[in-house]
Design a protein that fits this description.
This protein is α+β, with helices and mostly antiparallel strands. Helix content is about 25%, strand content about 30%. The chain contains 10 helices and 27 strands. The strands form 6 sheets. A 7-stranded antiparallel sheet has the order 10-9-6-7-8-12-11. Strands 14-15-16-19-18-17 form a 6-stranded antiparallel β-barrel. Strands 21, 22, 23, 24, 25 and 26 form a 6-stranded antiparallel sheet that branches. Strand 11 and strand 12 form a beta hairpin. Helix 2 packs antiparallel against helix 4 and helix 3 runs antiparallel to helix 4. The N terminus is likely disordered.
């Protein structure tokens, strides 16, 4: 049972202290709180008198610990009394309402050694003893303090909302450039089953090339739907049927030409090369058919390659990874930065459930726009051809054998006869470190970089051979059919 020390001195008698404690306890309904008046003894004799005034003030109070919260009175000295109060409380022994002799000796020494003067020695302070909860009676908020806290909170929220208004402005600015796509396709049935019509929902972003407007999206959103089975919906409610569709399976990019119309607004294209891990981004699309849905996140990683994306064979991969929610139906929608610029085309997710699990992939807009331009200009993506077979098992052990501290670049496993690589003199065992000024990270990076180069372009390649670096000029040809 807790025992409380009432050091009454000459100002507050033992009886008044008990009455005061009972009054505070009953009036505030504090079953686990006891308030005792404390008047600092002004001398050693009074301190000895106070030492003997030890009583079990309330047997309703339970708990294993005695916590003393010092409430500073501005008319008394501060830390000395707080310090002594805590030490006195520590020395009080919880032993069924009694104090052990050792505790009495400790209390005597503490009282004798800490009889400093108060500025107004006859004014009482107050202890609040809390066994478990640490309730602070005098600091309980009043109506005035609550109103002040609400005003302060509103001021902080106003500042935060002004900052967050940027997000709403971005969404409002880019919405007219984002479209909802619905494509009716014929499924490929298995043996013995009839074909069925399937509705595919996705999104896209409006681009302008010359005087014409196009929609950039994913190939898997519209392929293999017929032209008249594709509907493009704008935010203003208008619906268009595309005039022409181009697509490339190696990058999963498709371009749809819009008919001439008033009020079409093209999106602004950003620089995806400047994107960094940790940048804030928006993903806009039509998850589960819910058009123009917006989610928010960051760039989690860059340069994701060699991903297995179900039945789709996307050979040229260089994805951004984001934790912005991407679900079925988000495909083809834009990934936007805080400036309202398109930096990627949302394409795929990694998921065990089929829904968002915080891992989505987006094609960088520089790559997507380049493919789109080739499709519009040439009707296809003319892929450059290097003519090498790369080692996908390039690891630490092989890197050390070749003189590298860690695996970097792309290790050539074989060179195709009469290919641009063979003509330039590349060999088995060479490690491609740079390609046309781009530092190569791995084999997928080299395939993506070389595949998007213009055909017949001469590029400089830096290789590692027998622990020495060499520069080689390679003239790329068109990828064999």
């Amino acid at each position: 049972m807790p025992v409380f020390l009432c050091a009454g001195g000459l100002v507050t008698s033992f009886r008044e202290a008990c009455q005061e404690a009972t009054r505070f306890t009953n009036s505030h309904g504090l079953d686990n709180q006891v308030v005792v008046q404390y008047a600092r003894p002004t001398g050693v004799k009074q301190g000895l008198t106070a030492l003997c005034r030890v009583v079990d003030v309330s047997r309703r109070t339970t708990g294993e610990h005695l916590l003393l919260n010092w409430q500073r009175d501005t008319r008394m000295e501060s830390w000395r009394y707080s310090y002594r109060a805590v030490l006195l409380g520590v020395c009080v022994m919880l032993f069924d309402g009694a104090i052990r002799p050792a505790a009495l000796v400790g209390l005597f020494l503490l009282v004798v050694g800490s009889h400093a003067r108060a500025q107004d020695g006859n004014e009482p302070g107050r202890f609040i003893s809390s066994p478990n909860v640490g309730y602070d009676l005098e600091s309980a908020p009043t109506l005035e303090t609550r109103d002040a806290e609400y005003r302060a909170l509103n001021a902080e929220v106003d500042l935060l909302e002004r900052q967050l208004s940027l997000l709403k402005r971005v969404v409002k600015l880019v919405s007219p450039s984002i479209v909802h796509i619905e494509a009716s396709k014929t499924s490929q049935p298995g043996p013995g089953f009839a074909a069925a019509r399937v509705q595919e929902a996705g999104a896209g972003v409006v681009l302008q090339l010359g005087d014409a407007y196009y929609v950039l999206t994913n190939r898997h959103v519209v392929h293999p739907a017929e032209l008249e089975s594709i509907k493009i919906g704008l935010t203003d409610g208008r619906v268009f049927i595309p005039e022409q569709v181009w697509s490339d399976p190696s990058t999963d990019i498709a371009v749809l030409r819009l008919p001439a119309a008033e009020g079409l607004i093209a999106a602004r294209i950003g620089d995806s090369n400047r994107v960094e891990i940790g940048d804030f981004v928006f993903a806009v699309g039509s998850p589960f058919g819910l058009s123009h849905s917006v989610s928010y996140g960051i760039i989690s990683a860059k340069g994701r390659r060699n991903l297995e994306l179900g039945a789709r064979e996307i050979e040229i991969q260089d994805f951004f990874q984001t934790d912005a929610a991407i679900n079925p139906g988000n495909s083809g929608g834009p990934l936007l930065n805080l400036r309202g610029e398109v930096i990627g085309v949302n394409t795929a997710i990694a998921s065990n459930s089929g829904g968002n699990e915080g891992i989505g992939f987006s094609i960088p807009i520089k790559m997507a726009a380049l493919v789109a331009e080739h499709l519009i200009t040439h009707g296809k993506l003319p892929r450059a051809y290097l003519g090498v077979q790369l080692d996908g098992t390039f690891n630490n052990e092989k890197a050390r054998q070749l003189g590298l501290a860690a695996p970097r670049g792309a290790l050539i496993k074989a060179v195709k006869p009469e290919s641009p690589a063979a003509i330039a003199g590349l060999q088995h065992g060479d490690v491609v470190l740079e390609f046309d000024g781009t530092t190569i990270e791995n084999d997928g990076h080299l395939l993506q970089t070389a595949g998007l180069m213009p055909v017949n372009k001469e590029v400089e390649v830096v290789i590692l051979r027998q622990r020495q670096t060499y520069r080689v000029q390679v003239t790329l040809s068109e990828y064999p059919k």
